[in-house]
Design goal:
The chain has one helix at residues 6-18; strands at 32-34, 41-43. The protein is of the alpha+beta class and 50 residues long. The two termini are 23 Å apart.
Length: 50
């Protein structure tokens, strides 16, 4: 089990959270990927609606 693209996985998760019926619409949700070696965070840019 796994995924082909980390970015796509994060985008899919953010999309699901933003569109969940119990998630308040005023809550801001962002996606990040952390480099496990350096600890650097990279924000996954929004690509719009899926």
């Amino acid at each position: 089990m796994g995924f082909d693209s980390i970015e796509q996985s994060v985008e899919d998760t953010v999309f699901a959270l933003r569109n969940h019926p119990l998630m308040p619409k005023d809550i801001k949700i962002y996606g990040f990927i952390m480099d496990s070696t350096t600890g650097e965070l990279s924000e996954v840019p929004e690509t719009g609606e899926q």
